[in-house]
TrEMBL record:
The protein, known as: Glycoamylase-like domain-containing protein
Entry-linked PROSITE patterns: PROKAR_LIPOPROTEIN (PS51257)
Length: 457
């Protein structure tokens, strides 16, 4: 009996050691690994690379990656994963502003619009893409960090300096048309190309509106005419095979073409009025349901093994056509009408499945997103899984994230993760009710409210 008892104890120990992860533990691990993506992008001077890669290292930084990285720092602290975040954020802001002893400064125009890509060792410009949207993603991430670390006066002073130095008036074109500048010249003036609502440039409109001092300023008039009145924004309609009609906000007013779905995630992250608005939340839900239907209407893919939980369409690395074949490259994938599949109007010819986009819809469809994320994670084919590269103190090289794959080549796995595009996963996982919940983002993207409750745990 004694030997049997010892055997049972041993068995119980073994069973305990092999205990399967709960669903919550899986989701928390995926969020932790997502935060690690941004720590892997971060350099010793506080800048952030454009991407991380399993095959190469890049010296190219991304201004937008800085903004997303600052949000990731706040998530990491809230989850209890980083005790050094405040010091690291200060270092990042000092490098952006050129106020440290490392001799680096992020390149900007005469009116303080920052460059899109830069050299991570110096901050010098790569190319001439002086970008309002990348500037304002950086600023929004900084404002998020200021509000989260509201008791840190140093962070607050640097963020205020950053926000106040940018001339947002120059980003607004003809407000009657809803124009926001795509690119600026180095002297500070708009280059002459503009975007129209609705898209991620809502972030620029939001910051410009809150910067404007006069009620009749173009930024205020643009906001009131368009983003403050979302019923006037153009929509593209997707009609599913079962006859359901989904109205998806877009900036393609004349040809009924869809926008890429990251626009909804970016705006949810940084535009407080979007985050708390029932109208915009419903618009985001419509976009998600259209994306879900587009993938599940594909009989050609269902016949070769695609499951209902495989969906999600957004920008980032993917397969793109290369002559008669397919190669890895940067794609801005979108859904299209069923009648446009495999035509020139098909904007996802690479059949790239973006699990990050699926996740990014959790603020409006948490139950569906949770179920489908877990199904992808547990899929025996290993679809969508990517192991992070090793780096001492961050990843041992076996941490898994969910990212992308393609039904043009189901065996293809991406070699890169772009910081700006992967943020949909950061938002989606963190916003799940069992992790941080939507309240986390509703509170900390409320940049222009003076009240700051002690929400932090």
């Amino acid at each position: 009996m004694k030997k049997i008892g010892l055997s049972l104890v041993a068995v119980l120990i073994i069973i305990s050691g092999c205990k399967q992860q709960s669903d919550k533990e899986i989701l928390e691990e995926l969020l932790h690994n997502t935060v690690k993506v941004y720590q892997l992008m971060r350099t010793d001077n506080g800048f952030y690379r454009d991407y991380i890669s399993t095959e190469e290292s890049t010296d190219r930084g991304s201004t937008a990656s800085i903004g997303m990285g600052l949000v990731a720092q706040c998530v990491a602290v809230e989850m209890g994963w980083n005790d050094d975040a405040e010091e690291e954020i200060i270092e990042t802001l000092q490098s952006v502003l050129g106020e440290n002893d490392q001799g680096v400064e992020l390149a900007r125009t005469a009116e303080n619009c920052f460059i899109h890509f830069y050299d991570i060792a110096t901050g010098e410009a790569i190319g001439s893409d002086w970008s309002p949207i990348d500037t304002d993603i950086l600023i929004s991430g900084a404002l998020f960090a200021k509000r989260y670390f509201h008791q840190n006066e140093v962070i607050g002073q640097y963020v205020d300096q950053l926000f106040n130095m940018v001339n947002h008036d120059l980003f607004i074109g003809d407000w009657k048309k809803g124009q926001i500048a795509l690119v600026m010249d180095e002297d500070g003036a708009a280059r002459g190309s503009y975007t129209l609502p609705y898209n991620e440039y809502m972030i620029v409109a939001w910051l410009a509106k809150n910067k404007a001092k006069k009620a009749d300023a173009p930024a205020n008039l643009l906001w009131e005419a368009y983003y403050g009145n979302p019923e006037v924004l153009p929509v593209a309609q997707y009609t599913s095979k079962s006859g359901e009609v989904f109205n998806v906000m877009t900036d393609h007013k004349n040809n009924n073409e869809f926008t890429s779905n990251f626009t909804f995630m970016f705006n949810y992250l940084f535009v407080h009025e979007f985050t708390v608005s029932p109208i915009y939340q419903e618009a985001m839900r419509q976009a998600a349901l259209a994306d879900y239907a587009w993938w599940n209407d594909r009989d050609d893919l269902n016949e070769i093994g695609k499951r209902s939980y495989e969906w999600g369409t957004t920008a980032g690395v993917g397969l793109q056509q290369n002559g008669d074949g397919w190669k890895e490259g940067y794609t801005v994938d979108r859904i299209c009408g069923r009648e446009d599949i495999d035509t020139d109007r098909d904007r996802n010819r690479g059949l790239n499945v973006a699990i990050s986009a699926l996740a990014g819809y959790s603020p409006v469809l948490p139950d569906l997103v949770r179920k489908d994320l877990l199904s992808v994670y547990k899929d025996p084919r290993g679809i969508g899984k990517m192991a992070l590269p090793a780096k001492d103190g961050i990843s041992a090289g076996n941490d898994t994230i969910l990212w992308k794959y393609s039904y043009r080549d189901i065996d293809w796995r991406p070699t890169k993760v772009e910081g700006v595009d992967y943020c949909a996963m950061l938002l989606g996982l963190a916003a799940l009710p069992e992790l941080l919940g939507v309240e986390f983002f509703q509170e900390y993207n409320n940049f222009f409210s003076p009240a700051m409750p002690d929400y932090r745990r």
